[in-house]
Amino acid sequence: MSNSLQIHKMKKKIIIFILCLVSAGVSAQTLYSSYFLERMPYRHRLNPALINDYGYFSFPGLGNLDIQINGNMALSHFLYPSGDELLTGFHPSISSNEFIGSLKNRNNLSLNIDETILSFGFFAFNGFNTFDLSVKSSTDIFLPKDLFAFLKNGQTGEVTQYEMKDIRAKSNNYVELALGHAHRINDRLTIGAKLKALIGAGNLDARIDRMTMTLSDERWMIQSKGIADLSLAGVTLETDSNGEIDGFDFDTGKLGIAGIGGAIDLGATYKIFDNLTVSMALTDIGFIRWNKNKKAETPEGEFVFDGFKHLGAEDDDNGNNAFDDETDKIGDDLEALFKFKETRASSRSTWLKTTMNIGAEYGILNNKISFGLLSSTRFSTPKTWTKLMATANFRPAKWFMAALNGAVSNTGCTWGALINLCPRGFNLFLGADYIAAKYTPQYVPVNTTNMSFSFGINFPLGTDPKLKNKKVYNPVPAAY
Fold first, then answer.
1. How far apart are CA 33 and CA 93, in angstroms?
2. How far is Cα 58 from Cα 153, in angstroms, rounded to an integer?
3. What would the pLDDT profile of 302-318 be if each residue is shown by its tens digit?
4. Which residues, other chains included, contact 30 with Cβ-Cβ below 8 Å and sequence gap of 6+?
5. pTM to 2 decimals?
6. Are 270 and 277 in contact (CB under 8 A)?
7. Hey, which bits of 13-105 come out as E strands?
8. pLDDT in tens, 110-166
9. Count of CB atoms within 10 A of residue 152's CB?
10. Nearest Cα residue to 159 out of 114, 109, 214
11. For the chain, domain boundaries
């Protein structure tokens, strides 16, 4: 094979990898740690009824960058130190019980990215108004334990059979334009709503509903039932002599809109007492209609499989460790395992992952300190994500706010922190909903896949008129 052809195939794999891990899945979420801090610019994305202390204008491209990784697959489940070497769980020196025993029956990983291009908020019409232009992308991957058992153990007797279900990768990315308004009904009740126009950039939903593998000394036979949808302008699927998809051509000159959709956010807050406020919101109630769609299904009948020659290979004669390029070789073998044939394409619709947030906050010491409880549920298939977060919020000065929280969810226990600096004419925040305790030298979390990072630079526009009239918090000048 020529070097140019090898490079071409490598580029395709890189594009597939980026599409699966970066370009999509569900709507990414804003920093949950910001929910109870009224000087955090973007908390209205969690509940459109939340009113800030001041208006703001974002630094273009840097107003809000939020990256979140969630899942139950830890790096320590797959990489094992051995002297100066680092081995994967597929290496022969790692026992099957040690590797497979550390995995869940259903292993999942999610990546969410939310980047603000431009955003601002201002006070008018007896409330708080917001404008947002942002790029949102996210991915969900679901892998059963039996898949890793097959990769690790292969054939263990004269005839070995594996039954796998619900192997899935979901991706979805889009540009969002949102207009919001939070309106004060009276001193206790505030309602909010947000309208969103969505421009779809790319979507992938590939799943294997059922896969049966029968391994014998004579042959390995695989039968699967699955379907895949890919919506991305400028993509042409490539097939081999059997009509099976073995790659795609991606023409950047034909990039364009792959889908159009819309969504709404609804929310409300109610002050029960002067120091106790409850709130509730439903966000991302909407869908995207995809027109640039490629469809594929698994072939009928069984096929012979002879891949996975590279897993757990020992050092070669030159002393090169298989881990150096093992991931590339595994990728080659996986291409032989998951087979799809292109079928008739058609338009389709996908729903966003609607999120329900329910919160309660109790303030003490004239609200210099408050304690909050936030329940979040993100509805999706095949897995619904839930989280309960308890947070302590600190407001020692009008230019400095911070929060510290702990949470339990169906992906594990986490803790997070947030610092919000808001001196006159400037706002900078740094925070994370998920902070891992142990990292590799490359800053990859070891014992968990729950981690996040949020950062933003914004400029205040003016103080809430209600604070001026009631002289609360020692109102700052209008130029703040």
1. 43
2. 53
3. 777 765 554 444 444 45
4. 42, 43, 45, 46, 64, 66, 114, 454
5. 0.82
6. yes
7. 54-58, 65-71, 79-82, 85-88
8. 888 999 999 999 999 889 999 999 999 988 999 999 988 888 888 888 888 999 988
9. 21
10. 214
11. 3-30+74-392
